[in-house]
Design goal:
By secondary structure, the chain is an alpha/beta fold. The chain has seven helices and nine strands; from the N terminus they run αααβαβαββαβββαββ. It is globular and about 40 Å long. The N terminus is likely disordered.
């Protein structure tokens, strides 16, 4: 098992992924200022906190600063592990959630034949992290989540509803590449590996001018065995 604590640079990442990580390094904790409240994310985190028993293991993919998800789940007595590509975000998460464990890793590192084994989890969250991948990689990422979950494990996913694939957009003074699906297509992709238990959506207006309002879709899912 690797511990993901190295401060090595991003030479091992594909160029797009390296650019994404460096952008979020520069954004840092201004992300939380730009996206306050996060009602859908808070609601989904509350659902998980109530659904899981104390001590259950939860993996937060793309944990960002650790606020609000990892922080809320750790406060509920869950064993929280977070991963993020950005060294800056991982450092903030460690400071914000001292009872969690955080690694700088790519989701591809966690695939069944990947270099890192963090064990299995009762739940996985991926709040706006899979949209950072090209569409061609999202089904493999979902299969990785399926692999990481115990039988019957739950998965909470959020995406922005949009018909785009690896498109460059301005974001908090940087450029990032994002992908999205329209609602029906998102269901088809997710349902290959998961049963969708509940869907909710929110129209969200960030507190900055260079990020337009967006339709956020939250899916609460269970692993198909």
């Amino acid at each position: 098992m690797t511990n993901g604590n190295s401060d090595a640079d991003y030479e091992g990442l594909p160029p797009d992924r390296r650019d994404q990580a460096e952008a979020f390094d520069a954004i840092g904790d201004s992300y939380d200022d730009a996206f306050p409240h996060k009602e859908g994310q808070v609601s989904a985190g509350e659902w998980l906190a109530e659904a899981l028993s104390p001590g259950a293991r939860v993996l937060d993919l793309g944990c960002g600063t650790g606020v609000p998800t990892a922080q809320r789940l750790a406060d509920a007595g869950l064993e929280v592990v977070g991963v993020d590509l950005s060294k800056e975000m991982v450092g903030l998460a460690r400071a914000n959630v001292p009872h969690g464990t955080f690694h700088r890793l790519d989701i591809a590192d966690l695939r069944p034949d990947g270099p890192t084994d963090l064990g299995r989890f009762d739940a996985v969250t991926a709040f706006f992290s899979l949209l950072m991948l090209p569409r061609a990689e999202i089904p493999e990422a979902l299969r990785t989540v399926h692999h990481l979950l115990v039988p019957g494990g739950v998965f909470v996913l959020s995406m922005v509803e949009a018909d785009m694939d690896n498109r460059a957009i301005p974001f908090l003074g940087k450029s990032i590449r994002v992908s999205g699906y329209l609602r029906e297509e998102l269901h088809k992709v997710v349902e290959q590996d998961f049963e969708i238990l509940k869907e909710s959506s929110y129209t969200y207006a960030p507190a900055v001018s260079d990020v337009p309002p967006e339709e956020q879709v939250f899916l609460r899912c269970r692993r198909r065995d």
